[in-house]
Every structure is written in C-alpha cells, then in structure tokens.
Amino acid sequence: MDRGAAVIPRRGYLYVITAALLWAVSGVSGKFLFQRGVTPMELVQLRVTLASGLLFAWFLLSHKERLRIARRDILYFFILGAVGMATLQFTYFYAISKINVAVAILLEYLAPAFIAIYSVVFAGERLTRPTLAALGGSLAGCYLAVGAYNFDLLAMNWKGIVVGIISAISYAWYAVHGEHGMRRYDPWTVLFYALLFAGVCWNIVLPPLSAFRYTYSPVEWAWILYIGIFGTAIPFGLYSKGISLIRATRASVTATLEPIAAGFVSFFFLGERLQPLQIAGGVLVIVSILLLQMRKEYDDNTAALIRARRRDLDT
C-alpha cells in the first residue's frame, strides 16, 4: 500500500476532528458569554459579522475568484444566508443559552435524521428497515438526552428543547440547499455568501453593529474573537478540506465527536453535568446517526456500482 495514500485519509480525519473540537469549545464559550450578560442575538451578530468579514479579507488578499457569483444566483444566496444560516446560528446559540451545552449540540446533530425524512417524503427514497430503526433510535435517544423521563415535565426548559430541534431542522435545510450551490461554486464561496447575507440579516434585526459597541472585558473579547474566527471560519474550512479527502459521509460521522467533546469541556469549564440516562440517550442518538450515515454511504456505493456495470454492458 502506498504510504502517501494512507497519509491522506489520516490527514482528512485530523482536519474533521480538529473542526469538531473547535466547534465544541465554541459552544461552551458561547454559554460562558451568556452567563456574563451577552444575549444570543448579540452573539449571532458578532459571530456572522466577524466570520464573513474575515473571509472577505482573505478572499481579497489571495482568492478573489471566490467572490464571483452569477447575478441570477444572488437570490439563492440571499435565501440560503438570510433564512438558513441566520436561523441556524440563532437557534443554535439560543438552545445553548437555555439548556445543557452538550444536549443542545446533540439536538442539532439530529439533522441527518431530518434529512432522511426529507429524502423519503419529498425525494421519493424508499424507507428501509435500517433507516426506520435509526430514526426510532434518534427519537428515543433524544427523549432520554433532554431528560424527558423526568416526571416533572413542567419544570423542563421546553423553549430550549424546541429551539434545539428547530436548530436541527435548520441545519438539515441548510445542508440540503447548500449542496445545490456547491455543485456550481467552491464550498468556501457558498459559506462566505451564506455568512454574508446572515450578517446583513442580523444587522437589520438588530441596529447595525450594535453588539460591537458594548463594553466587554478582555476575556469576553477573547471568546468573542474565538467564536468568530476559531469557532466559525477556521473549522468550516477544515471540515470542507476533510470532506475532500475522506468524503462527506465519513466526515459527518467523525464530526459526531463534537457533542461528546462539548460534554467534557462544559463539565470542566462550566460545571454542567449529565445524568446517566442522558448520557445513554446521547450515545443512542450518536449511534443512530452513525447508522444513518453508513447506510447512506452503502447506498451511494451500491448505486455507483450499478451505474458502472451498466456502462460496462453498454460498451
């Protein structure tokens, strides 16, 4: 086996693992800022404005071609950013502000389950037993992870849980519609314009750049800059690079490290604890998502083999 061929997949996994760890710390640092008085809406404005500004500067310096889009695609990018990315960012941070960080991130990782449902309902894909089992496992795991087994249901933070599920739906919507753009543009271009229009949206919802005009301590500024740079622009880039080396399915499976890492970081940094049944529910959700993704890779490989055999028969 060629040593170089073995190194490339390892590098791809390293990129995705690093991205997952950076995202995990970003979620925990967001919760820290919420405890210091920053609101989710303000943090979203800070995040998307900083990240899109950083990418714009980088493109101007070394990749101007990534700024070029067709005029007919402006509406597509506006909807992707102002609806998809803007909603995803807010629901993600709002859920983190209301419930345990690891649970909020875990709820977002239900996105593949919603994509599978979308594929069955709207794309005409067949509902197989493994897919049905994975969807059931995701639902049961979610029930345990949010602590719904607790009989004091009225004491639960239902706003955080519901918004966390909306975050997963938003992520699924963004993934499905973002894929359309990546068929014509570089993933960096799609990400930049999604963040740019999300930034435009949040600088209309809130007074322009209002979140930047508050007085923050040096520690708070450090975490704000971390979220904008190391929690957004850099991990998205690493994740995209990882996909190019190990494929999207394996990258998404590897990225499930994020809620696990967030659980450990939030425990040591914020003192957040999960009950044994919540941990079991989290494991069940992750296993179910792994099954969904591996099933998707198997189906994709099978379809590719069928197409190759048909080409051989035609020739």
Task: Break the fold down into its secondary structure elements and pairings.
Blueprint: H1 3-35, H2 40-62, H3 74-98, H4 101-108, H5 111-121, H6 129-145, H7 158-182, H8 187-205, H9 218-246, H10 248-254, H11 257-270, H12 276-314
Helix pairs in contact: 1-9, 1-10, 1-11, 2-3, 2-8, 2-9, 3-4, 3-7, 3-8, 4-7, 4-11, 5-7, 6-12, 9-10, 10-12
Question: Describe it for me?
Answer:
The protein is an all-alpha fold and 315 residues long. The chain contains twelve helices and no strands. It has helices at 3-35, 40-62, 74-98, 101-108, 111-121, 129-145, 158-182, 187-205, 218-246, 248-254, 257-270, 276-314. The longest helix has 39 residues, at 276-314. The chain is globular, with a radius of gyration of 20 Å. The protein starts with a helix and ends with a helix. The mean pLDDT is 82.
Keyword list:
315 residues; mainly alpha; globular
* SSE run: HHHHHHHHHHHH
List how many beta strands DSSP finds. Answer: 0
What shape does the CA trace take?
Answer: globular
List low-confidence stretches: none
Write down the overall mean pLDDT: 82
- With helices defined by DSSP (H or I, 4 residues minimum), what is the helix count? 12
